[in-house]
What we know:
GO cellular component, one term: cytoplasm
Radius of gyration: 21 Å
Keywords: Cell cycle, Cell division
Largest sheet: 4 strands, antiparallel
InterPro entries: CDC123 (IPR009772)
Organism: Mytilus edulis (Blue mussel)
Helix content: 25-40%
Family: Belongs to the CDC123 family.
Shape: globular
Amino acid sequence: xxxxxxLQCSFPxxxxxxxxxxxxxxxIPLPQEFIDYLHADGIVLPAESITASALESNEDNVGGEEIxxxxxxxxxxxxxxxxxxxxxxxIKNKIKSCGGRVFPKLNWSSxxxxxxxxxxxxxxxxxxxxxYLLLKSSEFITHDLTQPFCKCEDYDEDSSDIxxxxxxxxxxxxxxxxxxxxxxxxxNNQLLAISQRHHSIYYExxxxxxxxxxxxxxxxxxxxxxxxxxxxxxxxxxxxRDKGHTSHSDSKL
Length: 253
C-alpha cells in the first residue's frame, strides 16, 4: 500500500464521485481546536452539548417525570471545558438534515471500537455529545489522526510533509441488515474476491444465494465503481438491498 492510495481512499476524495450510489452524507472540516480536543487526554464534553442533550432527554420523557441532572463537580479537580459553538451548530444542522440520526466517522475510520460507551451499543448519534463521546473513546479515530500512513511502503515519518485535511463525516443513519453487507477486494482493477462483511456470523442464505450474490455485486462493480475509482488495488464495502435482484441499482456503497 502506498500513501497516494490511502489518500484516494479518504472519504472526501471519493464521496462526490459516488454520492448517487451511496448513503447521504455531509463532510464538515475539523477546526484545529477540535483536533486538539480529540488528541487531549480524558473525556470532557463541551458544556453546551451536555445541556442540549439533557434538554432533548427531557423532551423524550413521555412519562412526564422530571429528570434531575446534577452537573456540580464532586470536589475533585475540574478539567477545562472545551468550546466550539460554530462547529457544534454546523453538526446540529447536518444531523437535522439527515432526519435526526447519523453515523459518524473521520476520513477513513468510524469509532466502531467505542460502541460499548453508547447507550444502545451502536454508532447511532442524535446530538453532538453522542458524536464527541464516541470519537474521544475510539482508538480507530486516534489512528486516523496520528498514523494513517504507518503501513505504507513509501512513507517516511521523519521526512514526510503530508498534510491531511480532516473532516467529520456524518452519514444518514440506516438500519442495515448485516447479512446483506459484503466486502469486496480489487486488484489490478479486477474484482478478485467477495466476503461477507461480518465474518464472525454464519448466514445460511449466503450459500443458498451465492451465484446471485456474486452476479449482483460483479454487475454493480463493473457498471458503477471500476471506471470511476482511480486506484487499481483497494477494497470496498457494498450493501445488497434486495435478494435475487440483478440490477446494479439495488446495491449501495
